[in-house]
Model the fold of this input.
Amino acid sequence: MNKYLNAVDTEGKLSSSSAPSSDNDLVNKTYVDQSIAVTVSSGKFLLDGSSQASAALKKSGRFIFDLSGASADHPFKLSETADGTHGGGSEYTTGVTTVGSQGSAGARLVLELTQASPSTIYYYCSSHSGMGGNIFTGSVGGAITQSADGKVGIGVASPGRSLDVSGDIKIRGGDILGSGASAAIQIDGSANITVPQNLTVSGTFNGLNYPTSDGSSNQVLTTNGSGTLSFTTVSGGGGSGISSVSADSDPTLGGNLKVAGYSIVSTSNGNIAITPDGSGKIVLDGLSWPIADGSNGQYLSTDGSGALSWATASGGGGSSESSDSYTLGYSTLNGSTSGSVSSALTIPSGKTLTIITIDVGTGFVTSYGSGTYASIYFKIGDIVLQPEGAYSSYGSVSRGTTFWGYADTHGSVSSRITTSSSTDISLHWANQSNTLTAGSATIKAWYR
Done:
């Protein structure tokens, strides 16, 4: 027999029943009383022990909120506005019956929901804000079915599972629990999904068919290009690595590249370019090389700390020699048959003498045009330096002959002389018996 509520006694039972009108939403509906325990803890309402829980109630049903365990200091009320009168709303009383005094045995609030009831009703404390929560009363009708074995269908006339849904399911954040208390699937408010436990995929996942079992050690997943993945042994397996990286146009190493006694060889006569990024350097066996060419004639120099750079040779032109010079005039030789000029040339400390040159600018001659048979030499302390040239050539001045050095103007030092302090070189001559009327020569001591 179909019943509808005419009155509620103190036990929350139907006191009478009669045939409803055809437009009554309780036609072909039967009430099933459901009780929800209301308590108070830490300034919040608890529904069946859960603080500020959201209740999902079925329309065309009667629900009893047991207020016997709720303190009378927190009057339990309903509203269509969140937080009721504290949120600017008013108390909701449609289909609401209160029995007894809150906090006393048998006290309850009975809520009858019809298809016209609001989809959301809020419970709140009329004396204090922020204590309540939501009651969802979504429309329930022919779209929801329940089979004799307890299976529930939404949009499905004959459900084949415990919950059989035809259409989308919207989850507004929260967890889907497994058989235990741990979350099997977590969904946040931005629709991100986390699977904290093991995930087993059978069939297609994101359009790809994954293998159903593990492969061998060191195998990798490869695709056949048609959506099927499988475990494959890479070419050159067994720990020797892959044989070619040509398929990767920009490979990146995750560790050292070990050639194990082999060479890095280019193909088709190609160059092997090593190009560091930005301000990076080329470091070979601990030495940092310059990344750009130097100027013509420069050489590689080290700073002694592993950094090489281009440098220019001291003195330029590929030579680092310096010299000291003395000008010998004919009048000096006329003074005596043999003589000397002390400190004619000076070599600085720490230098090595390389050569002494005699360049005759004007021939040493007499008034008759004859040359001199004088000979010259040099001394550094007790060391005598004799030029290789035999400075005794003579001839006609009119032919442009330069006496004293016509053929051999440069004499080389036969032994290596390196100074430890500033050192003087004296000039000596002998066998000068003529009276000269002209002659001049530049004598230079070269050192480095």
